[in-house]
Amino acid sequence: MKHKIWADRSQFDSDPEQVRKILCCPHMGIVPMQEYIEEIERASGEDFGALRLFMQNALITQGRSDHLAARRLIAEFFAERAISNWKPTFEAAIAEVLDGLEASEAPDLMTDFASPLFAKIISRMVGFSDDDIAKLFRAIDVVQRFTEPMLSLRELRNLNSSIEYLDSVLSEKKRAQSEGPEDLFAYLHRKSGAMPNGMDLGFFAIAITASVNTPVQTVGYILYGLLMDQADAWKNAAEPAWIESNMERLLGLWSPTLMLMRVAEKDVELGGCKYAEGDIRVLDMPAANAKLMAVPEGQARQATLSFGAGAHKCPGEVMSRLLLSLVLPAIARRFPKMVLHKDKARFRASAMVQMPVSLPCELHGRTERVNARLVDVKDLSSARQIVMDNDTFMPPAMEQHLRALAENSGRDLSTAILIARNAMFFMSGRRHTRAREIVAGCLGGNRLPAWQPMVDQQVAAALNGLEAAHQPDLIRDFASPLFRSTAQPILGADVADAARFDTLAPILQDVLEPWLPIRELTRLQGIFDELLGLMRVPDRGQNQKGTSVFTAFMDAEDEDFSVDDIKALVLVLYGASFNLSHTLGNVLHWLLIQPADVRAHYSDPAWIARHYEQLISLCASPKYIYRMVRSPTEIEGIPLSVGETTRLCLSSINREVKAGHLAFGHGLHHCVGSGLTRMLLRSAVPALFTRYPDLSLRPQAHKYFDMSQTVAMAELPCLLNDAQTSGNPR
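^ thats the sequence. predicted structure below, dont judge the formating
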């Protein structure tokens, strides 16, 4: 078996009917694993005795007759009627873990909810004796990876030791029956006479535990999907009836299984396809499920393939479905304003599975005091009150702050002061009004159409660059070059060394955060100096496409804006314009994790135009808007004194808004680049999906920048067409 078997997704089977036939065919078996382990032992001198015993007792690696006998043995325990007896246990564990999640200082839906919930439930259901729930879950999590191909020697050692640990906490269990339903270990003892010869009761129980680990992965993944979606999805999840009627859709969209492998044990023909003995087929489960989910509205969906099919169908399906029907409404009702910190979410993706390992979140969306000088505002009505009330609130007084800091510290902060003086989000008064007038003359709604031909040309160039990329990435090869090629000429950022400028320019985004420590200000000031030195006054006759912002300020000849002021203002606008690229990247990621029936509209400019406000409210990159208190007031019962700062948390504020969001701010400080962002979305998104209608993402390969003020993707690897992918939607 070679890595290339699962590296070339174009060779995967993704037709759901063919996948079902392969899974149900008795002559399409599991790829043998025992021989691989024995070969590793011979080559390395390692002893993986526990792993070998485990594999001899695992359903997925057993011979056909032993497998059938073992499935019959556990059928009664995992039957729907028997699993229903565990409902009170599930409900009690859910309530306990919800309390733990709420008590967490830094709540995380995986480490504080899904993982401990599964560990508590499985500990009771199987009969483990160790009370260290976290340790138990880590061991089960390791053991369930045993089906992944080509594990390293280190991973095999960890797997072997985890199996030994689980065996020890089973063998220590007292045989006395605890209250409630009979656990699996006791059940197997009672049924031991029916076990196939040579099977070990403890290792069989551990193997069953690993095979029913799907719930923790599925719960976490569906929570991620619901919280990445519009707010209505989370509201609906609070209703058990909605969960029940949408169960197949949720399981189909957010299944952790990426692929399954089957090998032909003899020559066989399925659905008109002939497979020779020894042929290995790789089954693309997300793609198969996506096709099952893509049915016309009102038509019943077929059962998902998320639990497999045939002889090796997951024995924990009934348990998973019951748990999901209880968990999702319970957590959505408990935390109706929950928000996911999506840029902090982390996934583990192998060839076989994808699952979240960390999902940090905001639980309540309540406005609260962070410290003596800072209040976080998370309510839309309060946020709108703040951005509209210019008598009570104002932008952070950065210029005054820096002048005072320079005087008190004896540091030369002249460049930082120049930047702050010309950052429009820190401006107020006459200079701010005049700056907005001049910028509006270039970026206003009636002026932007002059730039449309240039934008279309650059979109086409970016698409060509994406196609030429060896390993295409929607950030590196599309969003970022498109941003640079449009923002620089429109703003008039004419530079002496483009490569050096492009390297340093992303650091401009740090200026968005007020009240930086002096050490960080000193570092940034050196970079600002270099960037300003690279900027040139553009030739007014050079740009024939439209009047750039830089040229417009020069033409205005306003005494409040010297050449250095104009350079600083254009530089800060360029730094702020990175949000255009980041928002585009976030939008593309969001679009590409949606169901196949929604994706059919992406090449339609009219559809994008109708939905871009919703897309911006979900995907806009700014995290915060800052306002300082001019006069004493209060917000949601929290008293505010003069000089304190309110930080408007946009992930919570915009969560329930489709129109009238604050992604671009509001009022006097409404983002001057909002029109350009909308124009770019209207142009770039349909063009991308027209060129690549089968565009998809590499599973969970995306990465975010670690940024305090911005949600920004660093990488978004993709597959452009059917030559690279069989249609995996995520």
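Confidence is low (pLDDT under 50) at residues 725-730.
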